[in-house]
Amino acid sequence: MTDRPQGPSAHDDASNDDVSLESVFLSEDDDAAWDGDSVIEIVDFSQFEEIDDDDEDEAVWDDDAETAERLRQWGFETSDFSGGDEQEPEFLPLVAIVGRPNVGKSTLVNRIIGRREAVVEDVPGVTRDRVTYQAEWAGRRFLLMDTGGWEREPQGMAAQVTAQAERAMHEADVIAFVLDATVGATNADEDVVKVLRRAKKPVILVANKVDDNRTDADAAMLWSLGLGEPYAVSSLHGRGSGDLLDVIVAALPEEGTGRNTETGPRRVALLGKPNVGKSSLLNKLAGENRVVVDAVAGTTVDPVDELIEIAGTEWRFVDTAGIRKRVNEASGHEYYASLRTKSALEKAEVAVVLLEAQEPLAEQDTRILSLVVDAGRALILAFNKWDLIDEERQRYLEREIERDLHQVSWAPRVNVSARTGRHMEKLVPALNLALSNWDRRIPTSKLNAFVAELVASHPHPLRGGRQPRILFATQAATRPPTFVLFTTGFLEAGYRRFIERRLREEFGFDGTPIRINLRVRQKRMKKS
């Protein structure tokens, strides 16, 4: 009787600290995630260069060029990602869309950029921060800044929204002042005109909600504001939007003042539940009130990009809306805010997930962490409001982390306070560590030497009298590190987790998820 190898088994996971990286938060026995073509592919090696079964363990190549060529022959496309190269900053003309609440500013923004990016709902006050998008018309590229509604005598959160709108007026190269033509010029609109004149910027008067010829006369009444010709448009139906864009492009300066957010520094997404302190953290890092902060949960709706310099290095921080519940269960602008948050995560390189130190870890926290790992982004855990907890809570929190967050034990952790600025200096080293490992590539020869030693000391358990073997290993990509194992059979979940854990022990990879894909050799038919 053959002795069973003493390597890790599929069910012997008591010592496994990390979850399988290919399917975050799956149960240990759940192999379903490995049945998709994106993870496991059956490859017929026989149609390519023959590999003698007696020499399978010698099928290791030291030359990376030869390795890439063999993988291409086997139908696998290798990619070489150059990580971390910063591009030169690009400055484009900036157009600010301003006006009273609920006059259709965000709808006009969506019409101009050609997609439903800004969150829109038929209630006033949905947009609160200054949100910038890239637009193009007639071959001219520019930045479009959506703003919250300006109010005459704002109170509470509305005062911060109004302040942000006025800041946009002073930063813009061109201002598009939007009014509701069906309502006409109100006292609040006349007050906005005074602010616009103090800004001393080119102003284009936009008469919105002119859906047909019957309301053209309403638009003509806006000549009384003294800002020139009112351009009648319907942001909802697109009527007159082309003529308006012609006027905007004609007013743009040759050189703009707006920083293009698509290029330049590395992008950091701030994620977390509502009211966990994401906006407060961004303001503390910036040293000023860049975004609106309020005690009411759900203050941030649209993702807000801000360029912040920390210790001589520029970073692009993206403040996102708090994810309150499952996206398919959300309603109204909350649903669209959740979609924008996921889109912002896809555009980011590293995510800082904020968790409340004084509150027990919730299911929503683990769901957000799952989103980050599924997206393949580098990850930092930031426990906010650390100034509010005592030593007893710290002990309980350590137990909760060990019990509930063992799946992401590889993520660097910082304990901060966005209110007091405690330990803010530890955030940048954690970001640099996570991003460097996210970009990291292991040489093929070194990786195969590691795998050979690993398999020799802990071979895969026998299943049905057969023992699958790893023929060859290579790192196919970075961002995140992606490894491909060419095997003679299927590797069980427990053994894959074992390989992942040993990879981290040997090479580090703190702060980044790892993806391990399998290429299983198809069984060759014996020649008769």
Overall mean pLDDT stands at 78
Oligomeric category? single chain
Poorly predicted spans: 1-63, 75-86
Taken from the alpha-carbon principal axes, the silhouette is: elongated
Please report the distance between the alpha carbons of the first and last residues: 31 Å
Class by alpha and beta content: alpha/beta
Helix content: 25-40%
Largest β-sheet summary: 6 strands, mixed
Count of discrete alpha- or pi-helical segments spanning 4 or more residues = 13
Instruction: Please report which band the strand proportion falls in: under 5%, 5-15%, 15-25%, 25-35%, 35-45% or over 45%.
Output: 15-25%
Strand order of the largest sheet: 4-5-3-6-7-8
Number of beta-strand segments: 18
- Estimated radius of gyration: 28 Å
